[in-house]
Amino acid sequence: MAVYTDVSPEQLEAFLSTYDLGRLRAFKGIAEGVENSNFLLQTEAGSFILTLYEKRVNPADLPFFIGLMQHLAARGIDCPQPVKNREGVALGTLAGRPALIATFLYGTSVRRPSVANCAALGTALAGLHRAGADFTASSRVNALSVPGWRPLYEQAKDRADTVAPGLSALIADELSVLEPAWPSGLPAGVIHADLFPDNVFFTGEELTGLIDFYFACNDLLAYDVAICLNAWCFEPDGAYNQTKGRALLAAYRTVRPLSDQEIAALPMLCRGAALRFLLTRLVDWLNVPPGALVRPHDPKEYLRKLRFHRSVTSPADYGVAS
Ligand SMILES: Nc1ncnc2c1ncn2[C@@H]1O[C@H](COP(=O)(O)OP(=O)(O)O)[C@@H](O)[C@H]1O
Ligand SMILES: N[C@@H](CCOP(=O)(O)O)C(=O)O
C-alpha cells in the first residue's frame, strides 16, 4: 500500500480552503503505488488525486515534474493536470510534505496488455515525445541511465547471488559491455522513463490516461521505446511477444518516425533498459525494511528479459525492419 503519511480531515479541509474546489465530500488513501502517498479526493468540484511526495522524490525535481505535466496537458496529452490554488501555485505543503492536487483520470490499467493495448501505447508514447519536444522550461538528467547503474551494482553485488546464482557476474559482464557501447547522438528529449502498464489507463481498448511522471527526465527518445518494449511485450512465461513488439513499434512510427540509427540501437537500448530495472528491483529486493507493507517487484523477471536481449542478433527480432 502507498500511504506513508497520514492526513486528518481537518488538515485536508484547511489545505483545500486555499483552492477553488469547493468543500471536501470524501477522501481515501489509494493502495496502489510504491513511491508516494496518494489520496482520492471528492470535492464539490469533482474528483482529484492528492499526492504527498515522500523521501525518494527530490523536492528540487518537483518543478520539473509539475511543469512537464502542465505542458503536456496543455498539448492535449491525457495526463494529470496540476491544480493551482487561488494564488496560482500548484505545489503546496501538507502534513509536512510537498503536496499536489491533480485532475483525476478515468480508466483502469491492464494486467496483461493485448496487441491492441501495445499499439495504443506506441501511439501515446510517440505523442508524448512530440508534445514534450518544446518543453524547455527546465530539464532533468536521468539519474538511472548508464552512470547510475554501477553504483546500484556496488550496493547489490555481494548479495546478488542470493537472488539468482551467477547474477553478480552477469551484471558485471553487462556493465562492461554496455558502458563503453551505449549509443550517443540519437534524438533526445523528455521521456517518461517508467511507462509500465500500471501507469497507463484504458477504457475498453481506448487509452485514456498516462500517470506517474516521477521518473521523467531528458534522455534518448528511443530509450523510452526500449523501456516500453520490456514492460509491455513479454509474456508471463518470459517469452518476448514479437506481435506485440511489432504493434507497439509500428504505431509509434506512425506518429514519430524512428531513424535507422535508432532502430539499429534498439538491441543495446533494450538490454540497458532491462539492466536498469533489474538493478533497481535488485537493490529494493535486498533492502526491504522490516515490517514494510510494500512488496518489492521481482528482479528475476528482468533477469529473464535481459537474457532474451543478450540472445538478440538483429532489431528485426523485436518486430521491426529498418
Ligand atoms: N491522476 C490520476 N487519476 C486517477 N488515478 C490516479 C491518478 N494518479 C494516481 N492514481 C492512482 O494512484 C495509484 C498510484 O499512483 P502512482 O503515481 O503510480 O504512485 P507511485 O508514484 O507512488 O508509484 C495509481 O495506480 C492509480 O490507481
Ligand atoms: N516500474 C518500476 C517500479 C516503479 O513503480 P511505480 O509504481 O512508480 O510505477 C518497476 O516495475 O520496477
TrEMBL record:
Enzyme Commission number(s) from the entry: 2.7.1.39
TM segment ranges: none
Enzyme class: transferase
One Pfam family matching this protein: APH
Domain Aminoglycoside phosphotransferase: 28-258
Catalytic activity: L-homoserine + ATP = O-phospho-L-homoserine + ADP + H(+)
Pathway: Amino-acid biosynthesis; L-threonine biosynthesis; L-threonine from L-aspartate: step 4/5
Superkingdom of origin organism: Bacteria
Keyword Kinase assigned: yes
Keywords for this protein: Amino-acid biosynthesis, ATP-binding, Kinase, Nucleotide-binding, Threonine biosynthesis, Transferase
Keyword RNA-binding applies: no
InterPro entries recorded: Aminoglycoside_PTrfase, Homoserine_kinase_II, Kinase-like_dom_sf, Pseudomonas-type_ThrB
Gene Ontology molecular function: homoserine kinase activity
UniProt family annotation: Belongs to the pseudomonas-type ThrB family.
NCBIfam families documented for this protein: PRK05231.1, thrB_alt
Protein name: Homoserine kinase
Gene from which the chain derives: thrB
